[in-house]
Design a protein that fits this description.
alpha+beta; Jelly Rolls; Arc Repressor Mutant, subunit A; 3-stranded antiparallel beta sheet
């Protein structure tokens, strides 16, 4: 069901300029809501469905080196490279972890979207949900289903996974900074390494290494408000050194860790669920 918000929790709508300039992020193991600086239009490749919603003026998106399209609403499938730019400094970006949803039963604009999308009702639902989120004092969703109800009008259909693969996914997502190897997972699943890797890709839709790389880079989002030295954060996130950290993060986000952390200084960060529990700095 939809998240229940006491009307007394809703704060009055602020001036348009103030509301649109506020930078916020909410995330759990399955979803990310980011409203903040867009950054430079470098190539980015997320391991999740990526939804972009313009806050005011349209944005422009280029997928896989194709033509640039101008739109208020765009969708990019997992592991597909894209560039995005806008005359606005701010953008709303929602990430949906692909292993959590059944592709065949997703709404059409999410299932087949690859670039600009014409779905005015879905766009308005997301904008209304964002406004409601910003006006709510608690700014929390207890469950992924509650997030989906608000931003997509209903819980997105869950993917049915082999129980062994599901257990390994939960292990990695609950502790994405650990160095869980395919060999360890294969032993836990009572499978050979080759059979585990084949089954993992068939069930999840991406190779084991790609998934683990994405989850580690995704976990950086939990740290963006920390003031620690980037070299220390690199070790905390599970990278062997700052060079690997910078290279991997830039490949995925299109920005260096230094740029990401600098752009998040005024970001209000909210988290929920098992993956958020060990971290610090959440409101």
């Amino acid at each position: 069901m939809q998240i229940q918000i006491d009307p007394s929790e809703l704060q009055p709508s602020r001036g348009t300029s103030s509301a649109l300039s506020e930078r916020v992020m909410w995330l759990n193991a399955d979803r990310v809501l980011y409203v903040g600086l867009l950054g430079e239009p470098s190539m980015r490749t997320f391991g999740a469905f990526s939804i972009y919603v313009s806050l005011r003026r349209p944005h422009r998106i280029c997928v896989n080196g194709g033509v640039w399209e101008e739109t208020q609403f765009s969708v990019v499938p997992p592991y597909v490279g894209h560039r995005i730019e806008s005359d606005d400094r701010m953008i709303c970006n929602i990430l949906i972890e692909s292993e959590t949803v059944r592709l065949s039963d997703l709404p059409e604009h999410l299932r087949s979207g690859c670039g600009a999308v014409d779905a005015p009702e879905a766009l308005q639902t997301m904008r209304d949900a964002l406004d409601k989120f910003k006006r709510c004092a608690s700014r929390q969703y207890a469950r992924t289903e509650d997030f989906d109800e608000n931003f997509f009008g209903g819980a997105l259909p869950a993917r049915a996974l082999d129980r062994r693969i599901s257990a390994m996914l939960n292990k990695i997502k609950c502790d994405p900074n650990s160095h869980t190897s395919a060999e360890e997972c294969a032993v836990a699943c009572h499978l050979s390494v080759s059979r585990f890797l084949h089954l993992f890709k068939a069930e999840v839709g991406s190779p084991f290494r790609s998934f683990r790389t994405w989850q580690r880079a995704r976990s950086v989002l939990y740290y963006v408000r920390q003031n620690s030295n980037l070299a220390n954060i690199a070790l905390d996130v599970g990278y062997p050194d700052s060079t690997h950290f910078s290279h991997s993060v830039r490949q995925i986000y299109g920005l260096t860790p230094k740029s990401i952390f600098a752009g998040c200084r005024k970001l209000a960060l909210y988290g929920s669920g098992a993956a958020a529990a060990p971290r610090h700095g959440f409101n």
